[in-house]
Specification:
Elements: H1 2-6, H2 23-37, E1 39-42, H3 89-95, H4 98-105, E2 117-120, H5 130-134
Antiparallel strand pairs: 1-2
Length: 135
């Protein structure tokens, strides 16, 4: 019942809370907002990551591209990978500013073309820790 009310699409990261939520839920929202700031997508095949909306660029501004979307028709990170799962450098340079391209090329994609997954950006391991959340 709570899932249907607060995150109907099945993803806790897409929660929607009304302004008249209980004090407990407001506390949960506050904690969740803090956690969302440290979450980043790790690129596998790129199909789940929205290029312009999701946090996926380690070291980038808010983990998102600085480059505005403008007239780019590519909406998923997968659109910037070649058939072998490596970065399509030519396409990156066509649609992203140099500062974003440099940050994107610093990290490798999944050689096995695995599924994208969410990680905690503030720990090298990707695992959430209360200590890193304080930082």
């Amino acid at each position: 019942l709570l899932k249907a009310k607060y995150y109907p699409r099945g993803n806790l990261l897409d929660t929607v809370f009304s302004s008249n939520s209980s004090v407990v839920w407001k506390g949960i929202v506050h904690g969740l907002d803090l956690v969302k700031k440290g979450i980043i997508w790790r690129v596998g095949n790129g199909t789940m990551i929205k290029t312009w909306r999701d946090a996926w660029i380690p070291g980038g501004h808010n983990f998102r591209p600085v480059t505005p979307k403008r007239n780019c028709r590519y909406n998923r990170v997968a659109d910037f990978l070649n058939e072998h799962g490596a970065w399509d450098v030519e396409r990156l340079r066509e649609y992203f500013w140099d500062m974003d391209v440099r940050e994107i090329l610093k990290f490798r994609t999944s050689p096995r073309n695995g599924q994208d997954f969410i990680a905690w950006a503030l720990e090298r391991s990707g695992q959430f820790t209360v200590r890193s959340a304080y930082h």
